[in-house]
Automatic annotation (TrEMBL):
Regions of compositional bias (Low complexity) in chain numbering: 115-137
Signal peptide, first to last residue: 1-19
Phytocyanin domain segment(s): 20-113
Transmembrane segments: 166-185
Name this protein carries in UniProt: Phytocyanin domain-containing protein
Keywords: Copper, Electron transport, Glycoprotein, Membrane, Metal-binding, Signal, Transmembrane, Transmembrane helix, Transport
Species annotation: Turnera subulata
Amino acid sequence: MAIAVALLVLLLASPAVHAVTHTVTWTSGVDYTSTANEVYTVGDTIVFNYDSTHSLDQVSASDYASCNPSSPIKSYSDGKTSIPLTTPGPMYFICPTPGHCPGGMKLQINVVAASSTPGTSPTTPSTPGATPTTPSTPDTPPATPSTPGTPNSPPPPPKGNGAASIFANLILGTMLVLGSTIALMG
């Protein structure tokens, strides 16, 4: 019985957190500069899929602005690059192939801290070529206000449909009934 109570306490104390995998089809002819509604959260992963005519460089803000691939933070060329998002803040990616970054093949994202409040993720991505594939929890809104749609503005907080809250309440209710039943039997 002590084990059941300990398990119940552990489950009730743990927040529900779900990571999102953002998939980006990294190709020429797509403008990746608009990320107004995409939410990237610590714990999520961004996956870039691309062919052998492209590569991927993670760069500084100044190298992103000038499309300068000469001193990347990290370079990738494996065709399917998976990058875990571990730190809040902006991240910058460019294609170092000559002419590709100036042609729009560059992506800036803003990674926000994860929230421990149960909720849901946005339902539609706005980044061309990016698609969330698993649900997440809502994010903490940016500390500084900005005008939606302006370049480099942080994304707005997601609007949820309550599915994660319903799921969390269902688990909570089940655990309470189970705990009460075990307590009465003991």
